[in-house]
Amino acid sequence: MSMLTATSITKHFGGLTAVKDVSINFEKGSITAVIGPNGAGKTTFFNMITGIYSPDGGEIHLDQKPITGLKPNFIAEKGIARTFQNIRLFKEMSVLENVMVGMHTHLKAGFLGTLFSTPKVRSEEEQARYDAYSLLEYVGLADWVNHQAKNLPYGAQRKLEIARALATHPKVLLLDEPAAGMNPKETTELTDLILQIRDDKQITVILIEHDMKLVMRISEQIYVLDHGQLIAQGLPEEIRNNPNVIEAYLGKSAISV
Amino acid sequence: MQEILSTLPQVLLDGLTLGAIYAVVALGYTMVYGILELINFAHGEIFMAGAFIGTALLFTFVDIGLALNWLTLILVLLLASLLTGVLGVGIERIAYRPLRKAPKLIPLISAVGISFILQDLVRFIAEYKTGNYIVTGQTVFENKIAIPAFSIGGYDVHASAIKSNTLVVIGIAVLIMIVLDIFVNRTKWGIAMRAVAQDRDTAALMGINVNKVIALTFFIGSAIGGATGVLYAQQYATINPFIGFILGLKAFTAAVLGGIGNIRGAMFGGLLIGLLEVFAAANLGILTGGALGAEYKDVFAFIILILVLIFKPAGLFGQAVKEKV
Amino acid sequence: MKKLASLFSSSRTFQSVLILLIVLCTSTSLYLMDKSVTSFLLLLFSFLLLYYTTFSNWIKWGAGALIAFAVIPVAASGGPSQQVYMEVAVMAGIYIAMALGLNIVVGFAGLLDLGFVAFFALGAYVYGIFASPQAQALFHNSSIFPLGGESFWLFIIVGALVAALFGIILGVPVLRVKGDYLAIVTLGFGEIIRIVFNNLDKPINITNGALGISGIPQPKLFGFTFTQASHIYFLVLIVLGFVIYAVRRFEDSKLGRSWKAIREDEIASQAMGIPLVKTKLWAFALGASFSGMMGVLFAAKNQFVDPTSFTLLESITILVMVILGGMGSVPGVILGAAIISILNLQILTEITLFLTQNLHVPEVFSPAKMQRLLFGLVLVGIAIFRPQGLIPAKNKTYKIADLKAKLSKKNTKTKETTTSI
């Protein structure tokens, strides 16, 4: 069953077409990679799905319901969470608070309830705290709870972004270059974590990644973008041997050799 | 209608004069914003400092027995813009450069602080020297040019008079704008400035000395702001340390109206706001049947600012910039 | 010095003895001597010491309340300067509450508001117009107006609501666009409100223009009228107590976290489901409402309002309090507001008096006139050297062991229930 579908979506910036007529269908509970050379339009594709950009053409459906052009916060509410290529944590806030921000849409505390600190609000806060902590345990950051997010090592920051995204209880998780800047050991941990997330929580995972080892290991489907267009799709082995993909990455001469 | 039309020539001339002043001050805001994405709150005070420096220089010239004519005025303009230019560069070096990597709120706060420091320093010096912080300076061109009454399409137009200084203000302001436009678009340094405004890191990679370009931007913006201060003091004679604040607000509005970062836009915005303000001051009473008077003229620029932000936040000539994700 | 500090932080006995000693000495000397600014200031200093003690929060708040409600009013009542001290304390309290309001906007939500005094003015004028004879100029044939001092209690809320409403009206268009425009728009708004109040004596006389509104009634409760500063003092304390309580509540709540998240990164906040404009509006409205509330108090205390009380300098003064104390830090902002307001109201005038009378320094050098310079230096200095302020904001911390223990308890519980099914 398909969880997320993009139907011929397009985005122009001035004269440049960043994404052109791309259609992809993501199956529920699958792990899919979107790859392509720099500037291929991968992040723009993510930004359209998460509502940061509104597509100039085409439609996006989540669970058969249209979400095209909705504001990012509504899309997050409907069940799409993401991480960012250039880490965007709430730097001055504590690690635990970062995750608690992710729970925003699921907390019901209102203005007066907060002001008078009603039992309901208090127990909700307490619950949120434990949930946040258990998510931190899940991604392996239990020891960092009270640290400021900006003081975390790089790899841990990427994990925190994932924990924060998971806190929104997403149906779909978009990871924008989750392994960037990680050492091999961290990358292996991350690979396991992504697989675990999918298996434990039945979340549909979509990732943009340049680390081909990681991509080949965990993706069930791979889509290749180049110059904003979808140039190939298929299983990892098919993509590995696809001449179009090699050309896009290495140039035309690479094939003839 | 008759009433409005009868004063129209005077209104247009006064509006154009004020608008020219706003326009040049707006250039300083727009240049700094374009390059640093910082509202340089102190810019209004640099304008004010220019007015005081010019006035002080003219007093000194009178004291040493120099005749006041167009030559002395040019000398004063050059000296005042040199001093305010250096002032601007100093402010950037001390109060903004150390904060370039800080969260956006911090340099804004620093800018507000600088603006207050300048206000009080000038107030102190003026009060110490003259006993009063409101100063009436020397005017170089005092004679008036009369425009006779005439009648057009059945409407009588009142006679109006302009100070010859009005022509000086408009002339010099236009000259500054033309020179700046040529500088930014045609010269090596102007192109470097635009490059830094577009992408600081890439510009640095291309071998542009970013710090130098930013300092240059502050120098030019402040120098022309200071020169405008001198013109303002010439036109309106009386100045005080707080003139830069509301005027700065309006000039900033002009910059936003023209599309912040857009130099030609700022010129257009300044002229438009100047005209609207003088028109409102002259005719608000007539248009509202006496309910609202000229005292609301300062409200106008503000309402324009809000309207622009609601309907065309990128300004009339700017393009919307989206943060890179 | 370092030794003393370490002794202070390690020994609770030392802490209690020191504070008791200070409170005792200063309050006695304040009571016995007529004019002793130093002991008054030292007495206030005991609050800061109290903050740095290691006692539990309940004890700290209890002791603080005791000093504020009992020791200070009694100690100050010793001489003819009683009302002077109380006046200073009242104004300091009003400023602290306003600074806490601005802290929500600037410190928590990261929005620079340079016209905050506008909301203070709105509160003051709302009470001023409807509770004073000015209302009769507005509603000629109405027997309800003026409302009188009994209505003060209602107007505390009305003032808060009106200010919040204006905050929203201003915020809706402005909060949509880029953050730094907000600074300039609020700056303009502050001036506009002042201009409007200054001129709204025609066509209909609403504010009595530049002359201001006089004859504003003092608060009345069950026949008792709060006439003296020493009466108003208790009112201010209660309102301030409420404001601190409220700010504390919001700081660590869903709303408070979303403010801070927006301050740190708008795009990431949105991706977490936080609506930007709505969240910013809450900050704007809530901050404004505190200011409006204090405006009502201010009008009732002075029995007079005019536009000169609401200049840009006032807005910047409140901003300086927040920046100096530490953006986003509640204890910091309280400290910053206390320092600046006491500096403004007492210390600068004392120094000026001393300089001009004893040393015959010309008036142009008087420090009381150099507020702008002083505030400007504070702003630039803090921005460059200590952006986190005197007492930096701290995130709430949790004991990991607690979280872990409760979590495992909960997990076993859920496991039990699942197995029983």
Automatic annotation (TrEMBL), chain A:
Keywords: ATP-binding, Nucleotide-binding, Transport. GO terms for molecular function: ATP binding; ATP hydrolysis activity; L-isoleucine transmembrane transporter activity; L-phenylalanine transmembrane transporter activity; L-valine transmembrane transporter activity. Residues 4-252 form the ABC transporter domain. One of its GO terms (biological process) is L-alanine transport. This is Branched-chain amino acid transport system ATP-binding protein. InterPro entries: AAA+_ATPase, ABC_AA/LPS_Transport, ABC_transporter-like_ATP-bd, BCA_ABC_TP_C, P-loop_NTPase. It comes from the Bacteria. One of its GO terms (cellular component) is plasma membrane.
TrEMBL record, chain B:
InterPro entries: ABC_transp_permease, BCAA_transport_permease. The keyword Protein biosynthesis does not apply. One of its GO terms (biological process) is L-alanine transport. Keywords: Amino-acid transport, Cell inner membrane, Cell membrane, Membrane, Transmembrane, Transmembrane helix, Transport. It is a multi-pass membrane protein. GO terms for cellular component: plasma membrane. Its main location: membrane. The keyword Membrane applies. It is found in: Cell membrane. The chain crosses the membrane at residues 20-39, 46-64, 70-93, 105-126, 166-184, 213-233, 239-260, 267-287, 299-321. Pfam families: BPD_transp_2. One of its GO terms (molecular function) is L-isoleucine transmembrane transporter activity. PANTHER family: BRANCHED-CHAIN AMINO ACID TRANSPORT SYSTEM PERMEASE PROTEIN LIVH, HIGH-AFFINITY BRANCHED-CHAIN AMINO ACID TRANSPORT SYSTEM PERMEASE PROTEIN LIVH. Belongs to the binding-protein-dependent transport system permease family. LivHM subfamily. This is Branched-chain amino acid transport system permease protein. It comes from Croceifilum oryzae.
TrEMBL record, chain C:
InterPro entries: ABC_transp_permease (IPR001851), LivM-like (IPR043428). It is found in: Cell membrane. GO terms for molecular function: branched-chain amino acid transmembrane transporter activity. Pfam families: BPD_transp_2. The keyword Cell membrane applies. Keywords: Cell membrane, Membrane, Transmembrane, Transmembrane helix. It is a multi-pass membrane protein. The keyword Zinc does not apply. The chain crosses the membrane at residues 12-32, 37-52, 58-76, 88-108, 114-131, 152-175, 181-200, 221-247, 281-300, 312-343, 373-391. GO terms for cellular component: plasma membrane. Its main location: membrane. This is Branched-chain amino acid transport system permease protein. It comes from Croceifilum oryzae.
